[in-house]
């Protein structure tokens, strides 16, 4: 039951008056922007004297920024992040979740918003068959689905039209949506900052040292800088048309772009230069989470430990809306502590809690325990063993729910 999950996580509830967030965005329009490969380490960071994400950094002044939230995707990468956002149930892990649910309707954020008077639309500029989104989107129940069939095939970079084409299209849909719905939910999945991050010369806005030329990380920074600007342009559009002050906006990263060990020694040196420490698992797995919207937030940074599983409950808390099914995640405003099961990008039964990152044993390597603050190895205690057991139970509970969805008639 829900209570069991709470008990397993051993969470401490932060009283509501400390972060007065319940229902503060009631009846507002909702814009969720899931950003391809956006990692936490680029936020508020400079390279060669220039901000990597100047537009998001400026947005933070009007936002609450959660800077300690981990990616939790499985083999379905971007589509698993969409799953986590829209169900607050763990992804399957070794298979893309969409392949397990097989298109059957599931309790979801779009359905809950529809019951509360919202029209719901999702936008992604790739072919809908990538990650079987032709099954994922009906399962999640969006009213409107816009992919590369509708979004103009202009300024193609990598997999499809550049993010500015996507955002421009989404902005142009707004008046059409408002003809049919009083309140709208727009879910926008960006694409341009996808590996290998090779941007046309004229869209490389950062002036980087020569040593960054043609490196994986150098290219990554350029593509993130480009997408950051397109998010800024879209938010400016919301301001211009008078929607910003009546909207709740969530921007977050789907998963890492710089995976595992950097590709070359040059990349390693660049990361060391940028971060002042060797690139570690926290740098790799933390995704930025930014809640914004006119007049709602005052630039606070909250470091409660969280995962993508917490995005939906946090959003619904701000809207003051109840979901009609169990969510595994938490409202990030109100839970200081957390126990996050990890799988796929770390071996199954790995977890993160407030002081530990536990990497479960794999076929090749024994288990490793890290002190989460120092990222130095530490030894196993009874308490750790309890957390390992609890993390496994939480994931099993979530899997039961997933299974019940896939067995639905
Ligand atoms: C594919 C795009 C990228 O449509 O969303 O997916 P990824 O390769 O990052 O999982």
From TrEMBL:
Q: Which compartments is it annotated to reside in? A: Cell membrane
What organism is the protein native to? Sporosarcina psychrophila (Bacillus psychrophilus)
Keywords carried by this UniProt record: Cell membrane, Membrane, Transmembrane, Transmembrane helix
Protein name, UniProt field: Phosphoglycerol transferase MdoB-like AlkP superfamily enzyme
Pathway per the UniProt entry: Cell wall biogenesis; lipoteichoic acid biosynthesis
Q: Which residues form the signal peptide?
A: none
- Work out whether the entry's keyword set contains Hydrolase: no
Q: What is its main location?
A: membrane
Domain Sulfatase N-terminal, residue spans: 29-321
> What is this entry's stated membrane topology?
Multi-pass membrane protein
Instruction: Give the similarity note.
Output: Belongs to the LTA synthase family.
């Amino acid at each position: 039951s829900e209570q069991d999950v709470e008990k397993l996580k051993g969470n401490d509830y932060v009283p509501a008056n400390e972060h007065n967030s319940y229902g503060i965005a009631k009846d507002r329009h909702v814009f969720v922007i899931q950003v391809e490969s956006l990692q936490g380490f680029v936020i508020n960071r400079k390279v060669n004297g220039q901000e990597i994400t100047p537009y998001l950094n400026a947005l933070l002044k009007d936002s609450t920024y959660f800077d300690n939230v981990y990616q939790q995707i499985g083999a379905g990468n971007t589509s698993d992040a969409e799953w986590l956002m829209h169900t607050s149930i763990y992804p399957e892990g070794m298979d893309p979740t969409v392949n397990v649910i097989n298109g059957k309707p599931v309790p979801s954020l779009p359905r809950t918003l529809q019951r509360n008077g919202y029209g719901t639309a999702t936008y992604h500029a790739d072919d809908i068959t990538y990650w079987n989104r032709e099954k994922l989107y009906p399962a999640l129940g969006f009213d409107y689905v816009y992919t590369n069939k509708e979004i103009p095939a202009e300024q193609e970079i990598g997999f499809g039209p550049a993010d500015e084409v996507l955002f421009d299209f989404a902005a142009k849909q707004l008046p059409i949506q408002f003809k049919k719905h009083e309140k709208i939910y727009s879910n926008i999945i960006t694409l341009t900052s996808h590996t290998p991050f090779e941007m046309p010369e004229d869209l490389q806005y950062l002036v980087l040292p020569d040593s960054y030329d043609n490196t994986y990380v150098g290219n990554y920074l350029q593509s993130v800088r480009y997408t950051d600007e397109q998010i800024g342009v879209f938010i400016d559009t919301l301001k211009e048309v008078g929607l910003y002050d009546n909207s709740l906006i969530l921007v977050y990263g789907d998963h890492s772009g710089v995976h595992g060990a950097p590709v070359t020694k040059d990349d390693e040196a660049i990361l060391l230069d940028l971060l002042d420490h060797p690139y570690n698992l926290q740098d790799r797995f933390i995704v930025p989470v930014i809640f914004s919207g006119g007049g709602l937030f005052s630039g606070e940074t909250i470091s409660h430990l969280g995962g993508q599983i917490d995005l939906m409950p946090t959003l619904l808390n701000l809207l003051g809306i109840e979901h009609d099914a169990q969510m595994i995640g938490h409202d990030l405003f109100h839970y200081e502590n957390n126990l996050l099961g990890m799988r796929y990008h770390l071996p199954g039964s790995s977890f993160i809690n407030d002081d530990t990152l536990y990497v479960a044993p794999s076929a090749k390597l024994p288990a490793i325990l890290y002190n989460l603050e120092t990222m130095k190895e530490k030894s196993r205690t009874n308490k750790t063993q309890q957390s390992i057991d609890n993390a496994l139970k939480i994931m099993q509970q979530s899997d039961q729910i997933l299974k019940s969805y896939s067995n639905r008639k």
